[in-house]
């Protein structure tokens, strides 16, 4: 593309060069898989009969290979609000498949954890590794060799990355992700945040907090703040894996149903087209587009872990250096809560992903020439879907409907992206700048060192943190305890910051797109377990965190100290069954995956 930004081009070419051998091996494997399994008629009669025995009215079509048979891999459960709508999808999808001479079967289900339910609880220690379990579950679902394409029904935090990683191992087939959309807007986000901080200070009751939370998370659909779940949907649009514009259309609407129906028809259409296989759609340019979208929208920091793992599954080498260099040239064009006041419904109304993709393409910040499931390139994703009567159409988005939320890349909120790499003698970490006021990007203060969120909360309640302080929470990495998200740290640290103190967080654990306004160096690698530098810090050591200069350091002589050793309680809530995941996990920058590490990917 002639107007492609020089840095975006250079980073892409570096990723291509770094991925040359692994990508070739991956594409060779996909070619062999296509040749080895041309269609389900290669199955024995007994195998095939088992495969369509319960297909009822679709039995004859599958038996005679009348048309493509499409797999549905679903993360449905009705505890997780974002996934509850999926309960009605498979019966509808089977009808829509028949409309175009195809068939569809539920190939399998995957787990779907809700970090909103497990945050601060023991169950959160299974959350990150549920991504590997989802990838493995997707692989099991697709292992029956009955299918000509994949529908991937998932939205939330680890679920889309896990589905992606599993689908990549069947990349000789085409795949379309189908979202269900965000729930309607609840109470104002500032009001929700206020009640949380009041509760942290002991000025609101549990009943008042629960009423507030219930008014925010109140119906089927994705949570409306711009966290990991909605960042997932953004990335699927940037990589061309949705029907264009499908990300943020609410459940239960005629447009939502029309988009899902179009996905079924489209997958049936491209089922026999190797040029639209998942492996061909997901190349180095598509991964760069996902990273650009993440930076331009101030998306979830969790994707600093997920995106390298997703790329690895498709033979592509992507790391934090690539993300940081892109961040230097990709402007912040959105402010969606917690980076702004409005939620994803307001974002959608203002122009949504169609506007974002259009402005990025116009400024040469994204690759137009990628293979997408929606068309010949990314251009159609710069439009928005609408219903002309009963007909699904696409139209130009026009100008931003709210310049306080959505701006052109030529006049952004911030000249660079929403994330920065910080590094020094405390390791390498990610800093989400888009949610933090620039005057807070540098904090230098004595540290207080903790091993649990509960210990931080206890010190806060005793007034021990009423000072300029860098709070260090260590032994929260993937090998220590599965790298749980540390949501419960945000309200007390926010209170300290509001009291006028200079406050920062440094941790080898995770914070998500909901991490908020406190400066934080997260995903610190090497992690404390095994002797990483955080294990050598002591209370009172001076720690400097600076997003401006990219610094994460201490003046303490770490080499002169032995690392602290902490033994975690790894039993209860099934955590003992995940011991092999912890023992074999690689670093956060590589994706914190035991599955990929053991597979040699």
TrEMBL record:
Query: What GO molecular-function term can you cite, just one?
Result: phosphogluconate dehydratase activity
- Tell whether Acetylation is among the UniProt keywords: no
Annotated keywords? 4Fe-4S, Carbohydrate metabolism, Gluconate utilization, Iron, Iron-sulfur, Lyase, Metal-binding
> Could you tell me which residue ranges the Dihydroxy-acid/6-phosphogluconate dehydratase C-terminal domain spans?
405-592
Cellular component (GO) terms are: cytosol
Q: In which pathway does it act?
A: Carbohydrate metabolism; Entner-Doudoroff pathway
EC number(s) per UniProt?
4.2.1.12
Record: residues binding [4Fe-4S] cluster: 156, 223
What region holds the Dihydroxy-acid/6-phosphogluconate dehydratase N-terminal domain?
68-378
Catalytic activity entry: 6-phospho-D-gluconate = 2-dehydro-3-deoxy-6-phospho-D-gluconate + H2O
Q: Name one GO biological process term.
A: D-gluconate metabolic process
Co-factor(s): [4Fe-4S] cluster
Q: How is the cofactor bound?
A: Binds 1 [4Fe-4S] cluster.
Q: Which Pfam families match?
A: ILV_EDD_C, ILVD_EDD_N
Record's InterPro entries? 6-phosphgluc_deHydtase (IPR004786), Dihydro-acid_dehy_C (IPR042096), DiOHA_6PGluconate_deHydtase_CS (IPR020558), ILV_EDD_C (IPR056740), ILV_EDD_N (IPR000581), IlvD/EDD_N (IPR037237)
Where is the signal peptide, in residue numbers? none
* Family indicated by similarity: Belongs to the IlvD/Edd family.
State its role.
Catalyzes the dehydration of 6-phospho-D-gluconate to 2-dehydro-3-deoxy-6-phospho-D-gluconate.
This one is known as: Phosphogluconate dehydratase
Q: Which species is listed as the source? A: Tsuneonella suprasediminis
